[in-house]
UniProtKB/TrEMBL annotation:
Residues 27-132 form the HTH APSES-type domain. It comes from the Eukaryota. This is Transcription regulator HTH, apses-type DNA-binding domain-containing protein. One of its GO terms (cellular component) is nucleus. It comes from Dimargaris cristalligena. One of its GO terms (molecular function) is DNA-binding transcription factor activity. Pfam families: KilA-N. The keyword Transcription regulation applies.
Length: 132
């Protein structure tokens, strides 16, 4: 996780432990997931809204892999074997999908080169990046 100070993303040279530059890409917003009783952070990237739960930090892996632009078959093949996954079939469209652990989502974002496009979804405390 990125452990910089609020505003450090403006310096351009700061990086997280994975060596990714930490600069603002997506706009962060929040939504209340009433059925689950938790707040979700959301970043819009390449036409998709990728959410992270505030209570347990799980990330919607379906939407994350949609950002990559891979086929539904490949995406579903990756997600069906995820350890600790949670499948959500009811509720708001942007919350439906296969939710995966924070660490695994971070690995996939790095592997498929969408980590920076999803900034600040993976920072330790996304709330400091919420635009009023």
């Amino acid at each position: 996780m990125f452990h910089g100070h609020p505003g450090s993303h403006l310096q351009g040279s700061s990086t997280d432990p994975y060596g990714h530059s930490a600069y603002h890409k997506g706009k962060l917003s929040t939504t209340l997931w009433e059925d689950e009783g938790t707040l979700c952070y959301q970043v819009d990237a390449r036409g998709y809204s990728v959410a992270r739960r505030q209570d347990n930090n799980m990330i919607n892996g379906t939407k994350l892999l949609n950002v990559v632009g891979m086929s539904r078959g490949k995406r579903d093949g990756i997600l069906k074997n995820e350890k600790g996954r949670v499948v959500v079939k009811v509720g708001a469209m942007h919350l439906k999908g296969v939710w995966i652990t924070f660490t695994r989502a971070q690995q996939l974002a790095t592997q498929y080169k969408i980590y920076e496009a999803l900034y600040p979804l993976f920072v330790e405390d996304p709330s400091v990046h919420i635009t009023p």
